[in-house]
Amino acid sequence: MEELKKIYTTLLLVFKDNKVLLGEKKRGFAKGTLIGIGGKQERGETNEQAMIRETQEEIGITPTKYQLIGDIHFDSWYKGEHVDMYMSIYSCTEFKGSIAETEEMKPNWYDKNNLPYEKMLEDDLLWLPMAIEGKHFKGEVKFSEKMEMINHYFEEINENNKDKC
C-alpha cells in the first residue's frame, strides 16, 4: 500500500448573529471559491496555533472564543501529488481586530440560511450544513486526480463524544 504524504490543515468558521464569515480565495488551492478561513499547519505548530495564525494572516483577526467542531480526512491530490489531508474545523463566535481583505482572501458575511453553495467546493455541501447547525462531525472524502469526488462518509458526533471529532 502506498504511503502518502500527510498534510494537516485547519479551517475556521466565524459566526455573528445569523451570519457566517466566508472568504473568496484569491489565489492557490480553491482559487475563486468561497471557503472558511484557514490553511496548512506548519512544523511545530498545533492545529489550534495554525488556525489562529492562518486567521490572522488571511483576514487580520484573532479568534478569542472558538471550539473544534469537526475533522475531515481527505484522500486527495495537492499540487499533483496524491496525499492524505487532515482538516480540523473550528467555529468562532468572538475575535479581536478588524476583518480585512488580504492578497489571499476576500472575506464577507453571509446569511446562514441562504448560503451560496454553488460557489463552494463540492465537499462543503456535505459538512457545512452540520457546522451551521452547531453540530460536531467527522468525515472522509476521496477525490480523483481530477479533483472529482469519488466517495464520502460523514457522521454527526454526539455531545458526549464531541472531543473525538
Describe this structure in words.
Helix content is 13%, strand content 50%. The chain is mainly beta. The protein has one domain (5-160): Nucleoside Triphosphate Pyrophosphohydrolase, CATH 3.90.79.10. Strands 1, 2, 3, 4, 5, 6, 7, 8 and 9 form a nine-stranded mixed β-sheet that branches. A hairpin with a 2-residue loop joins strand 1 (5-16) and strand 2.
- What spatial form do the alpha-carbon principal axes imply? globular
Count of discrete domains: 1
What fraction strand? over 45%
**Range of helix content:** 10-25%
DSSP helical segment count: 2
Indicate the CATH topology: Nucleoside Triphosphate Pyrophosphohydrolase
Per DSSP E runs of 2 or more residues, the count of β-strands stands at 9
The CATH H-level homologous superfamily: Nucleoside Triphosphate Pyrophosphohydrolase
Q: What is the name of the CATH architecture?
A: Alpha-Beta Complex
- Flag low-confidence runs: none
Q: How are the SSEs ordered, and which strands pair?
A:
Blueprint: E1 5-16, E2 19-25, E3 34-35, E4 37-40, H1 47-59, E5 62-78, E6 81-96, E7 105-111, H2 124-132, E8 136-143, E9 149-157
Task: Summarize the entry for a quick read.
This protein is mainly beta and 165 residues long. The chain has a single domain, classed as Alpha-Beta Complex (Nucleoside Triphosphate Pyrophosphohydrolase).
